[in-house]
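Dear support,

I submitted the protein below through the web form. The confirmation email said the job was done, but the results page showed an empty box. After a refresh the structure appeared. I'm attaching both so you can tell me whether what I see now is the final result or a partial one.
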Amino acid sequence: MWKTRNDLLFQNICLSPDVCCTKATDMLQEYHKVWISPSTSPSARTNAKWEPPNQGVLKVNFDAAINLDYGRVGIGIVTRDMQGKVVFASSKTLLQRWGPEMGEAAAALVAIKVAKEQGWKDIVLEGDACTIIRALKGSQQRGSHVQLMVEDARSIMPSFDSISFSFCFRECDEVAHRLAKQAVSNFSDEVWLDGGPLWISDVLVFDTPDF
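What the results page shows now:
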């Protein structure tokens, strides 16, 4: 609300009450997404690192980035094996004026659809939106539109020999986060097979498992 007031005073930008309320709600949801999560010590979160899947399993990380001004949602997906090797990465843009939770649900749905299309049989689907992960597990119900998207994702589960859902902190989801930000900034769809773009290489090196 304070930002809206300043935009009006200093930039002569006037938002309707509906838009103002939507932006405030989205900011609150983003706060809950980032901070209202399974309890852990601050030091543990600071030192958190992406964890590789078991042998023969692929881990699919997903994330969403929101641009309400342009009505776009960026979706980032990265799939890695036990060694941390990227077997698939993508940035996808959706022309939707969604809040963070709806965006995260859409990212989860896109991720599980990609996994099915690629023919992967054993996967872990991992994201940093704890409410969406709980909904995917079936342990928590969300609002009607979000829940419908979650149910669409869950309906694809029989396509896999094994599938599980894992929550991680943002620090462990940085690759997917960068891919999502790239999509929402450049308004473009890109796919990389057997490796990712150079601008995520530093995170991939950091995430490399210690064997």
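Response: this is the final, complete result; the empty box was a page-load delay. Residues 5 and 14 are 9 Å apart (CA to CA).
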